Batch of 3 targets.
Target 1
Amino acid sequence: MVNFNGDADKIPFYETFEFTREDIAHLLQYMGLTNAQESCQIEHMNKFIFLHGDEQEVYNKDERNFIENAGDVYIYKEFYKRTKRGVMPCRIIATEISGINGIKNSLFFMKEINKAIGGFTIFFIKAGVNYYIGIRAFKDVNDDCIISKPIALTEDFEEITDKLSYVADSDDFIDYYRTLVDAIEENNLALTDYDRQIEIKRGIQYSYLNMLSEISHIYKVSFSGEIERYYKSFEGIEEINYLSIVKECIAELSFIKSFKANTMEMLFEADEMMELAKKTEEENEIFIGNQNEKNYNEENDSDMMRYLDNPELMIKMLKQRKGI
């Protein structure tokens, strides 16, 4: 059984965790994604897609090859979240994927599941020695996946678990979905080396090189090695970070297309539009209220200017304005 309470943060996570239905259920509960150790059914992906998936969908040769060669799929008990127009079926699906490119293969799996079944899916994927948390994204047809950075060490697992602890324990789907997105995307930002990005953006700092030259001249010390290293650090720079790798993989998988209208996605978009309309209306009311107050104050200020020589009357008018 997996033990998540150790202090050895640098231990590879795969050494602490066995990919069994019991350990997966325990892990999901520990991460706060389920309230109890849920039972699950296990089916081969081929059977799951073609027997339980939407019959209207069409799969090309590459898709069929991937589906047929994928392993077992662990499907945990479905649960439901409210929307303003109904309910959103939600589920957690886990799988173990082989292949060299763990990120791309994980996204391939997620996109095929999204294509086959509607609703909202949370993914837990083992790809090689790394693990990933993913969710279905309601963005556009091609960009329908959000995936975490690799969970390679136990500290990676604890880090994303900490972020997931802020996911809204709400029956409202939009609240639940948004906080899940925030948790995963915020966790992914930790991969960015901002100091290095700033250094690259600033470019070669000749003042630094001049300072080295001056010190070298005064103290008769050679900094030629450091100067060479500094110049080389700016050669062939590619600002490749994890998010750009994910985007590149998603672009390569753009051939995976759904041939039907996803009613659940339309439902979510309708809710989003209602939320946006409500927010816009509230902001507009606040703006109008502020404008009315501003106009009222300007009129009163104009009136008060007439009584600069009568402080008592001015105080009385101020009290009236503040409702005192």
Target 2
Amino acid sequence: MASLRHEFYETDEKLTISIFDRGADPAQVSITFEPSKIIYVNGEKTLSLEPLKGQIDPERCDFTVGKVKVELRLAKTAQGRWGGITGDAPDPLQTAPIGPTTSPAVAEARAKPKKNWEELTTKILTSEKEATVDEDPNVGGDGTVNSFFQKIFGDADDDAKRAMMKSFQESGGTTLSTNWEEVSKGTVEVKPPAGSEWKKWN
């Protein structure tokens, strides 16, 4: 009885065995798949592998006969690596307890109530004090600036109002003065902000 050289490789789902039997006749090759055993027969050549390190599903196992080797594909019933073909090691998943297992840390994390981030955000935003115009003149943007000037204009006397209108118009909006005595002496010159240049468009 001739012995047959063989080797294997595996994934978590399958184990593939290559049996080196050059020139094997597919009509003569017989393979028996059992849950924990494989029997290969080709004439007088036989190879029996048992007990397998894990259980296989015979219905999902198959093989192909090539010119140099016969390849057996074994479907594992439980995912995991065997590290070999035969041996006493049980299925990795058969020894694992069935049902969900929860570590104390996970159980404690599940027991803690979840934070309501929406509520926290709302609380923080409403607790923040909004700055007033007196504290920050930029609060409210252009609308606040306009209402500020309207208030000054509304509370001003006639001379101050004339000074504001004359200075604003003559300076192209770059100067606003409430001092009529100074503004009435001549044309108010354009004073663009630092870093900018005034251009008159016709």
Target 3
Amino acid sequence: MAFVRLRKLRIDAFPSDHSHILLEMFEELPLTVVELVLRYLESPSPQQLVPAATLLPNLRVLDMHQEHAWCSLCNTCNVLRLKDDPVSITYTNGDGLPVRAPAFVRSVSTSPLTLSIPQKLYNRYLAPLSHLRTVRLSAAYTLDLSVGVGLQDLKTPWRGECGECTSLHLTDETFVSDWEAKNKEEPHPPSLREVTWSFALAQEEESSEEEYVDYVDKVTRVRHRFWKEVDHNSDDDSEWDYDGREWD
């Protein structure tokens, strides 16, 4: 295999692509890779990490640079809505990764109704990585006074939960007690020493939604042309607009 001295691998997700597991693009990776950077994940669900244990058994550092945080309570990926500006959070005891939600989560604190939550989590998929020591995650946020709670107000660890679930569930002592007990039973990466969450205020889009859709459509058409040429092993480049007219 080429790149036998490769130590760090960075993968940038394609804009607005929700469906692909990035690591599934590779059948094999050098065992020398010890650091993985995943950037611009639109939906950073735990499924993105499933191939890591097989492809990168010597991984030591995982960096997931993303805007959307995955909430293990409601299984959504959204920009955080918080009542005040959060500060960077660092865990040095192996904690800090999104954890398993209880089998049933109450939809509101006073309601008998429950929501069934799939049992997916980062810890379980990363547990086979015996050398993993550092995980860095990022999330964008917006300020919303209606949320009613800030991360600094919590008496329990915050691990990526959305603003609504943070306000509703992580302030419920009964819920938190049961949740933390179940979390201790879950497998964790044995060498994990540091998990860091960093935050950035979400930027307002400068362009309109129509302009963004048009941009993605153009990128998709160019990518489709490229793969069409590759599939047909064609040397004819007459369809390509190398002078940039495709982007006018």
